[in-house]
Amino acid sequence: MNRRRIALILVATTATLPALTGCQAVDSVVDYFGPRPENRLLALADSAATDALALNGVDDHAAGIRSSQADALYAEITRLCGTDDAGNPPRSCEVERPTKANRAADSSEVMENAASATTAAADEVTVESRTLVTEQAIALNAWLPGDAPAIPELSQPEQKSAADLLAWEYEQVYALDFARAYVGAEHEDNVDHRLEVHHRRIDALQEALGRYGTVPQPEPAYSSGDQELPHDSASALDFLGGLAEQDGRKWSAAAAQAAQEESPDQDWITWLIGIAAESHSMR
User: Fold this and answer.
1) Helices 233-259 & 156-180, crossing angle to 10 degrees?
2) Residue 193: which CATH number?
3) Which of 6, 48, 123, 156 is a Cys-bridge partner for 70, taking CB atoms 3.0 to 4.6 Å apart?
4) What's the CA gap between 13 and 32, in Å, rounded?
């Protein structure tokens, strides 16, 4: 649309507005045509803010999580709308944060509902915001107890991603087995638990990929990447901490990438978010 056409529209629109002077008329047009908060993002932000109020004094840790998430979501709304030199969004994009909420009876129910709604929205918000929403879904699912969901049927692109994740899991098991030889006896149960989790993921990925053809097998050995291999108990604990951080980042990135696909698969995203949450809870 050319500038002359835009100017004519603005003139015509201004003519339909009440008789206003100078800046008032311009402000009214800007308010009418200006950017608006993305509806799904605003709903998530308002829900997080309401949850924080409802949980305050009931479960302060959960309230803090939801308050921080609300802050991030409102900031994302402002970022998408744009700001003036003073950092303020257009009036058309201003939002009012909830200030009242009924006191929650059960923090688990609130957080479970939040996790479900945020997970469902991971591929529904604007593409630019999907990484943020996916990260929040992971944090909420990590707060909840319970196992990760069952792996769904895989499309061809998802099979490629699953094969990459399977190779990653093989590498994690190799590294954990190596580190177990150096940790003290008091840490062996923790390592064994982590090995059990990774083997469960391997079984799920192998079974899912086996429906479509040959399943990738583990290599005889793997490098330690940027980490130095452990040589005693202290270095083994550092090594294990590094592995946990890397695992959380790997699965979080896989979930965010899946949410940003042109035709995202909600079941696949939900599974990836569940596994990423599991990784974060093991840190």
Assistant:
1) 170
2) 1.20.1260.10
3) 48
4) 9
